[in-house]
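Q&A log
Question type: sequence-to-structure
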Amino acid sequence: MFNKLLRVVSLFIPGSSRSEPPEQKILKFTEYENRFRYFLLIDKSWREGVFSTPDFFTKAGHQKITDLKHFIVTYRDGQIAYESAEFENYPKEISWMTEGRTNDECFTKEELTSGNHLFQINFSKSVIMSDDPAYYETKITNLSTERAKVIKFAGFKKTAVNCYEINNSTGDFFNAIDFNNWYMDKPDFWIHPGDTVSDPINYGGERNNWAYQVKTESGETFWFGNIR
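Response status: OK
Response body:
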């Protein structure tokens, strides 16, 4: 199953990057500019920090990164992306993905790849989670001449001859807000011609069978994906 931001999975997968020093791990997230928020556990209290090379700053003052032991990284909307440990109490701003209804709609490979000449999908090793092979970076490139928005997407599994069903942790499609949070964090959601956006900490048992539905500025709608 394709999972995303599921707390239990991220904490207990074998070979997890928990062995990496905290300051090295959180620095990898900061390389993605303003894509993430940082909550630091200082004197048993959670404080949101802002990174300014080489350390963090909170409302309580300066926090040396070398003194940082425990932290949580979230996307801009507060959805958790990474936690350095499992905690008894969490900041009130934190949220987790929840399961929804199960969508068992069947799609064909031809349908899910009809726009592959207009959008490209590539996978590479995750820089942030470099010592955990279950994580990878997914890059999406707009090859078309129009700007477009991803309106929904999912991981799929083949369940019958040329029949692919959703294989997400939530049981249903991820939506445009999810895509914006994970891939680019742009206020208008547009992917412009030639632009590449990426999810640096995608997670799943395999890299194949992701597909995305796109709507262009002129109103054309199509799917593209890496379906096997």
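Response note: The first strand starts at residue 36 and ends at 42.
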